[in-house]
Amino acid sequence: MASQRISSFHAALLAPGALIILFLLIAPIALMAVESFHPFVTGRVGSGSGWTLRNYAELMEPAYAFYFWETFRIGFIISAIAVLLGAPLAWLAARTRRRGLRVAMFGLLIGLLFMSLIARLYAIQMTFGSTGPLAFFGTMIGVPARSAGFAVVQVAMGLLHFVLPMVALILVGTFQNINPRLEEAAASLGAPRWRVALTVTLPLAVPGLLSAYMIALAMCISSFVVPLILGRGIVLFATNLMYVRFSDVANYPSGAAIGMIMFALAAIIIYAMMRLTRALSPVESHS
Amino acid sequence: MTGARAALDLTAGAIFRVLIGAAVLFLVIPVVVSFFLSFDDRSFLGAFPPTHFSLRWYRSFFDNPAYLDGLVNSLEIAAFATVISTVAGAAAAYALSASRFPGRDALETLFLSPKFVPTVVVGFSMLGFASAIGVFDPFTRLIMGHVIITIPFTVRATLAALVGIRRSVVEAAISLGAPPWRAFLDVTLPLARTGVVAGALMAFVLSFDEVAVSLFLADAFTQTLPIALVAEMRANLNLTVAAVSTIFAAGTIVVVLFLDRAVGLDRVVGQGMYRG
Questions:
Q1: Which of B61, B120, B127 to mutate to test the interface with A (most CBs of A within 10 A)?
Q2: Residues 6+ apart with CB under 8 A from A275
């Protein structure tokens, strides 16, 4: 039945979605790509005529490159923490025999995924901020809640709250697809549990852990709201810089150049993730 | 020997539990704190826990026309965007799952790709595109932006549900004389319903909470609720936002309970290939 040619019925079903992608995603980004090579004329909305690479060259200057470095530095660290915390959570949800516990964990993770991010970020500010009940956390790690440096800590916590439920849910799928009988076999041959975890479960979970890490990284570096709300104007990501270039300076071409770089970075991370997962995924195992 | 072994096992188990505990506490505590603060009777941000409780912050939300206008706009935009992206997304997902043609996988990737485009890029590029084609109405622009960010979720959720439907059921209907559209309406659609509903819910929530795209596409007269909230949070930190957050959280609990009753949370996540 599965024909090599597409039937007109199926083509008709695909058409609206394809048109949406074409007109609301590809065309705008293509236009933005063109804009990013136009010169910026001060005091003029839009861009000037002619072609230039200035908008990109400008971003290589240390003052701007710093934003990208800061974005990635925080993204790398938070994604690692998210995988470290998300993996045990996911393992428990995937392996527990108690249905109530499993449903409760799924409920928590899915609930957070559905819950307003703005509300969660606000809650973090209320909890860890200078009047919050957990304000001592900042003092404990040497960055008191009132200090300027706390903005970074706060942004980091916001990002972790943002990506952790997603990472955990991705990893639930990873652990569910590791045959529990392999772990049972190792255990019945006398391996202690920590050994089973390190030598059986962990290696099999590597592709999943890597792709969860990269999805977290992509979510972190393209985040806009988290630094906007929790960064106190001190921590700015490349995304925030893009908005500032547009809203305060009305430099559309420069914003477009930042947009193109953001787009390219996100695309590279996702592509690398897809290649890695494909290369690492074990040959279909049969139980 | 066995003693050392048991000690190692215990330590590993303890680390494992500490990590799980830390993760759950980190995720849950802020939400609980914000819940209690939303009922705080004090007019300033005081120490936790509050000593007197009242509904003053809920009243101040409903007395603020900026919030109410934003709420109405957000609901309308989310409703339009959800309907458009659910219909287009579910139809595309069905066609993708039912046919095989050259470039099919590339097309599927393309449908899911908006998910990986940073939302600032979507908002920024959409603004330039809208003015290039002469669309200056903020409401239309916002719907355009929200459709593109939600469509990968409706496609994805429907595809996931359709994978579970045996092709043979549809083929049976067709071989009994049903035209393909009839088989689609009577056989596939009811079976794919869970995926379509989950995708639509996801789309609505995503649109309702979107900041980056809306910030570029809204104007001074057409605001959404998240934009009004963010402006408030950056200007002066008060507890109105805690009240809104609590309302959002209550809404989330309703959605999750609904999903559990309608689909089962186990099935939303999926059970993997070694269970059930």
A1: B120
A2: none
